[in-house]
Specification:
The structure is a homohexamer of 139-residue chains. Chain A is built from 7 helices and no strands. Chain A is an all-alpha fold and 139 residues long. Chain A has 2 domains: 53 residues, no CATH class; 71 residues, AhpD-like. The N and C termini of chain A lie far apart (46 Å). At the D-F interface, helix 6 and helix 7 of D face helix 6 and helix 7 of F.
């Protein structure tokens, strides 16, 4: 517990930025920058707590964490935050097919309306990245 | 699409039972049996659609699917259905530490109340299985 | 709009009590009485606004209104309020089979966890009323 | 259970398409077709499970099923999926006044914000269909 | 209880309009007028029950009531209704910094996605009112 | 930003414990201790982030923060976490009548089922503390 206890907020923030850039690149990290210009303390918590404390932890890797994040966003209908994390998921190594599979699995657990809403967003991100998923054939 | 198209409901059900037993054993599958005694068509859909169509698909393995399921249950506050899936998650190979990590990651996405509610349930399942998670040391 | 405009709160309350008793009998109405002993203004709103203004309206009958109520309760996971309305639904003429059918339809829209949670509650109410639904045969 | 057991996926799909066309016409069914071009397995589940298994069941008719669907969508705030089902509800025989009445009843159960959000969507669909509801007079 | 009991619907409505105008001015009240043109009974309930019965009560003042309303809207993801109440909150005396603080506190309770979604809306309302919050300095 | 930047995790934790004890006393803080025995990192985040970072901030006082917290818990149906915060709310100076008033206001925004579920919990906490609210007279 020692070294984590002595960690300062500045170091948590720095760790968060590093993870954030690993996930969405300098450009994607700019999204948080926009929040910071308006409400710096909120941006600080997103970076330090969200990316510095949660995403930077071990035990689960970034691919597993994006499965969790995308599932939670779909389940609560937070489609507005989905594009950021579909991009991040692809960047850390989830395949397009795995992302679609999360959406379909969620249909059973969060209901079809939430899954359909998510599918629209996923399809737009895929289009923006010129991705054509290989899903036409059944498993 | 051919072979999947010719699959009958009886075969979907059979496939579902097989996956269900792989996940929770004969004893766990009995939970669905209780539903079936009361409302057979509902039990049929849970087994055929849920376990036969969704969980039996490829692309994501059962460990990944339980990450999704547990996250969705935490996010919607469906603590009543959690014990079944914490058992299943342990059975298909998620470690106790990974399950706790899902709960902590969800605190940021679904809020602390949902995460605390889930932690209570997880702790009861661990106790029932004599599991002591190695979480005292920071990552 | 004339006569509705001149309606007093006392008359709205009276209308609500009448509808409430029609739905759950004198005994069921006592549930609201318990709330009234603790927080009278809340009980007043439940009776006058809920039962006096909403349930007493025309355009939809009490059976249709209970379909709406039960669906909304299932979708938001408010299982605690379900027994009251499963009783009411049976009292105003929904059959046990129709109530089960609402639960199954909701599985697709609100997800299976919410539907399974609701089914537990419905099964307890049916047991308390000695009801054995004729659902073993497929439609 | 016999005949339902021998039903194949192709037949479930066919049954779903038939119900879907009954509800929203060939043109409305095209919405699902768009999903199918992107993620065929998801479209298959929507048609076979949603429209083939759920909507095609007996016990509740299509008008009652749309009351359930619209209520569930309002309660979970899934306004994006509402236009499809307001159209379907009108097509299977719910009157404009009954649809508005569902929204108002939901105000008490899911809160006014969800009801107001839904009312916006309903009003747009009515406008698109040149419908002027006769709701100015109190019941 | 006497005087409240004798209150008519017309008087509840009048009381609601008065509170509504106090909160959002004549112009803001026009929003409800638009609903009234489409579905008068719904507008009546919003004004009489919402603003006449709830907001007009004592025990909590309008600033405290807007804290509750904004929190509930953030928690349920009802961002569409937020602008109306961010305007109202500013009108009844909450400072821009207090409103941002509600959003940040909600991040812990409803999760960061809901808080981020709300922050977007708040920032747009502030921009429309030429408000620059003094939040750059930590508390 | 300087001093906040140099704050260590140990200091955030210490600040959180101080706020926590101010809110619920040594005994109430023990609830978090129980979580800490099972999953220390989660307890650390609850104390450091929740009570150290959020509740310890200025701009809103503890009474206002408990209005937010209780509203968010009611809106998401997290009744399990309510007793802790009803106790805290009373400890930091909200009156029993103000707490009931939050519940009633939430009925309009989150729907009556959530408000009724919350009222049950509030009534149990009041009973445990021998509190009889003065709510029988209308405002």
């Amino acid at each position: 517990m020692g070294s984590e206890d002595r960690l300062t907020n500045a170091e948590r923030y720095e760790r968060g930025v590093k993870t954030l850039v690993e996930m969405v690149g300098e450009e994607g990290a700019q999204t948080i920058g926009n929040i910071g210009a308006f409400f710096p303390d909120m941006a600080h918590q997103i970076v330090s707590f969200g990316f510095g404390d949660l995403y930077s932890r071990k035990t689960l890797d970034l691919k597993q964490r994006e499965i969790i994040t995308i599932t939670s966003l779909i389940t609560q209908g937070a489609t507005e935050q989905l594009p950021f994390h579909v991009h991040a998921a692809l960047n850390v190594g989830l395949t397009p097919e795995e992302i679609l599979e999360i959406v379909l699995h969620c249909a059973g657990y969060a209901g079809f309306p939430k899954a359909c809403g998510a599918l629209n967003v996923v399809s737009e991100v895929f289009k923006a990245r010129n991705i054509t998923p290989v899903t036409a054939s059944k498993p």
